């Protein structure tokens, strides 16, 4: 089943197609367009992540969680051939940090997994959550659940670990593929967003604090 799971996640056709789109005509579609436009305009990323006046914070967070999921899934998908059971038998961020997988179904206790296994479980788990109407409602007038921001914190914390693993273990591959600028921009955008709304515990950010680019911490 592991091979099948990986095939589903990293099949090129699927990897390069966003998992969830925003329906035209909805508030979130308009917000998404606004966010993308300001991103492309070359504005300072610290300004881009700020909540637009009069908008709902949960809508703003929902739009970004889905967008970051799609983009980070794509980044990892492009380098998944370099991240194998052999090269990365443990899901880690250098020698100091090891990430274990836990969910409500198969792995009820934190479990050691290889990096590709962890990524596979992670992408499937996030896809299930963002497609769950009880958590990410898409119908107009349906409120977000009380635990919405807690769920988003969990998703974003785990997505941050993808950056940790990719930067620490696969940075050479990023450079060789000419993807460094793209990955750095995505990381900065993600980093400023989670800091703006205090969505990820600062201790989780420690592995990348001393990044050579100088914008961690």
TrEMBL record:
Gene Ontology terms, MF aspect: kinase activity
Keywords from the UniProt entry: Kinase, Metal-binding, Transferase, Zinc
Residues annotated to bind Zn(2+): 83, 88, 165, 170
SUPFAM superfamilies: Mob1/phocein
Signal peptide: none
Protein name: MOB3C kinase
Source species of the chain: Grus americana (Whooping crane)
Gene symbol of the encoding locus: Mob3c
